[in-house]
Amino acid sequence: MNNYLTFPISAIILISYFVSFILVKNKKISPVVQCRFWNIILLISFLISGMLGLVLAVFIDLKLSIMWYRQLLSLHVKTGTVMALVSIFHLFWHLPYYLSLIKKKK
Fold this sequence. Notes:
Layout: H1 6-25, H2 31-61, H3 69-93, H4 95-105
């Protein structure tokens, strides 16, 4: 059974976010730099997780067996964990925008 390192990855991401938050509050970096950094992390984790997900799906559909399947699956899950956590930050940063879309439709 694979160990996907969910808790260590989550801890690293959360600690990194809070460090970036403190840097913004102490005016060491701007909110734009912080947002840009996390958007890049979100993009990279999406690309890796998404592409690996597609590759793994094709291997399964074609009933192909590769010796490094478990390593690809593990990397897919780990980057998916990063993507999910960063997506939560992204959601909260843009929540006013999303709420404004709902209010305009009513």
